[in-house]
Specification:
Strand content of chain A: 15-25%
Strand content of chain B: 5-15%
Largest sheet of chain A: 5 strands, parallel
Radius of gyration of chain B: 20 Å
Order of helices and strands of chain A: EHHEHEEEEHEEHEHHEH
Number of domains of chain B: 1
Number of helices of chain A: 8
CATH class of chain A: Alpha Beta
Number of domains of chain A: 1
Largest interface: A-B, 18 and 19 residues
CATH superfamily of chain A: SGNH hydrolase
Oligomer: heterodimer
CATH architecture of chain A: 3-Layer(aba) Sandwich
Chain lengths: 237, 346
């Protein structure tokens, strides 16, 4: 089975995880390649259709520039980007606002409606979801992989209340997952053991002190096992 | 021969030929005597869609404009406006009628609990008293209730803390719930909800009703804020549609005449109540209707800027030095005027 894992910076942890699982993947006859570009490249992606191929490029100036082509209809594509929640939960907005469901815990914050938060999420994901829709229309098998839950150290970096961060993260994932389901795109969940109370413990977190949202190689390995399980039905021990 | 008449000692501005006919609209002066100590006042705004521009100008001039429900930073200016942020001092949306203002105050201070104020559309719930504040609606009744309760707490704080309340009277025509008399900003079925003739009725408020509602409002406002002053204006934006059997031009004239009369009488009769003639600046003959957009209804940016020039020129505050500044870039038209939907539902 051939896997094409592509998307934003969360692909890096999956790549590291796959390297640590190299032999097991080979034994399971899983061949994976990886393509990674910064998130904003994907939020502004432009698609160019040529026959059954779809070429993705972007006008974004984040280097290196995005240029990726989907052209293997018999392979499986796993995409990271639509569920990247950090852009929302680390926004300074949350110093003074909270989702309305949390208002009892934060009476001094301004509550925001679901509709407002949805509109901000839509701004980030609409283009990428449109890209997935085009892939589905051309018959490609594509799934979306979840990034890790916010790292435990994440809220501290931006001085956010962890409860607000968890609340925003959960809302984002639930909302975008519903939209992906409507498109017929399955979501590969992060393994339960990689998070606790909505946050990712250090063991599964990128070790860089200021990194708020990327997974470690160990997380990448756990997630790769999850991806192989979902796509190939094979359990890698 | 000595000749004298009651007009002999009137100033130049009292004579149409000199003060109006002989002047270009942009040169007319003395329309507004101003608000004393404007720069020191905490100012709140509400009213019809024309009033949206006033708050923006006050803010851009560095006055103490109250904004109790500020926009979350992650919204763009356009998105924020779409969600009713930054257009008035709280997110109550357009308050077209005096009765709406009265019921907002009463609800905020626990004097009234509307029983018929929720509309539905495509599985979402809409606050019928500010249906455009959440264009996507609310996911549940609980969300609507929680957020309305928070909104009303800000409204309460605003009324208690303001020094000057700027209110633009917009309409006399309204739709009223038959269940509890709640007045809506727009007819059910236009933005959300469903129009059921047995559930609500049309009403065109008369002078006496508008006057009584405004007197009531000013009285109760001063029970919670004894020194509050009120500045009244009348929207020069014509009705998008009338529910009467009259021509919309006739209906507009009736509506604006009533509102203008009420505003003038209140300003004459009640200390601390002022009238600012934005209506005259836009609709008056010296303007030759140049301040209207091609739809002959909404006011163009130059018109709004001219209105605000007169506002600041009259204030005699240091801010008047800025009176000729350009219109803020963020200023737009009346995209969020709920009443305008009436013209789109045909």
């Amino acid at each position: 089975m051939k896997l094409h894992i592509f998307g934003d910076s969360h692909v890096m942890a999956l790549h590291k995880g796959a390297q640590s699982l190299e032999q097991k993947l080979a034994q399971a006859s899983v061949d994976a390649d990886f393509y990674c570009r910064q998130g904003p490249n994907w939020w502004n992606v432009r698609t160019h259709k040529k026959g059954h191929a779809l070429r993705f490029r972007t006008a974004c100036t984040w280097e290196p520039l995005l240029d990726y082509t989907v052209d293997q209809p018999n392979d499986i594509y796993v995409f990271c980007a639509p569920l990247h929640t950090a852009e929302l939960w680390r926004d300074p907005t949350w110093h003074h606002f909270c989702p309305w469901r949390s208002i009892k815990d934060f009476p001094s914050l301004h509550p925001l409606s679901d509709g407002i938060i949805e509109s901000v999420i839509d701004r980030q994901v609409n283009t990428t979801l449109g890209m997935l829709k085009e892939m589905k229309e051309l018959g490609y098998m594509v799934l979306v992989a979840e990034p890790p839950k916010p790292l435990q150290k994440g809220p501290q970096v931006g001085q956010f209340d962890p409860r607000v961060v968890v609340s925003v993260d959960r809302f984002f994932r639930a909302y975008v997952t519903r939209r992906l389901v409507d498109l017929g795109v399955p979501v590969i969940r992060v393994p339960e053991f990689t998070h606790c109370d909505g946050l990712t413990p250090d063991q599964y977190s990128d070790p860089r002190p200021n990194d708020t949202h990327h997974g470690s190689a160990e997380f990448g390995a756990a997630m790769m096992k999850q991806i192989v399980q979902v796509t190939a039905g094979v359990t890698l021990n | 021969m000595h000749s004298s008449n009651p007009y002999s000692n009137q100033p130049e501005r009292a004579f149409w030929s000199k003060a109006a006919a002989a002047q270009h609209i942009t040169n007319i002066t003395g329309l507004f005597d101003g608000i004393p100590d404007l720069a020191s006042l905490r100012i709140a705004t509400a009213g019809s869609c024309f009033a949206r521009h006033i708050g923006k100008f006050l803010k851009s001039r560095g006055l103490q404009y109250l904004d109790y429900e500020p926009a979350p930073p992650f919204l763009s200016a356009a998105e924020a406006e779409q969600y009713g942020y930054g257009v008035f001092s709280c997110r109550y949306g357009n308050i077209y009628t005096a009765r709406q203002l009265r019921q907002l105050f009463d609800e905020a201070f626990g004097r009234r609990l509307p029983q018929d104020a929720v509309w539905k559309k495509q599985g979402r719930y809409y606050d019928a008293l500010r249906p455009s504040a959440e264009p996507r609606g609310f996911v549940s009744l609980e969300e609507l209730t929680v957020l309305r309760s928070v909104h009303l707490s800000h409204v309460r704080t605003m009324f208690m803390n303001l020094d000057l309340f700027v209110f633009t009277l917009g309409l006399t025509e309204a739709w009223i719930s038959n269940r509890d008399g709640t007045v809506y900003p727009v007819a059910p079925g236009v933005v959300a909800g469903e129009f059921q003739p047995e559930a609500c009725r049309f009403h065109n408020f008369r002078y006496s009703e508008v006057h009584a509602d405004m007197v009531y409002f000013i009285e109760v406002l001063r029970t919670v804020n004894p020194t509050a002053r009120v500045l009244l204006t009348v929207s020069p934006v014509s009705l998008a549609a009338t529910a009467t059997d009259q021509h919309v031009l006739v209906a507009t004239t009736y509506s604006k005449s009533v509102l203008r009369s009420v505003a003038g009488d209140l300003a004459s009769d009640i200390p601390g109540v002022f009238y600012f003639p934005s209506y005259e600046i836009i609709t008056g003959a010296p303007g030759r209707h140049m301040f209207y957009n091609p739809d002959l209804r909404t006011v163009c940016e130059a018109g709004v800027a001219t209105v605000m020039q007169h506002f600041f020129a009259g204030s005699r505050s240091p801010e008047s030095q800025l009176a000729t500044s350009l219109v803020p870039e963020t200023l737009r038209g009346f995209e969020n005027c709920e009443e305008a939907h009436l013209d789109l539902t045909k």
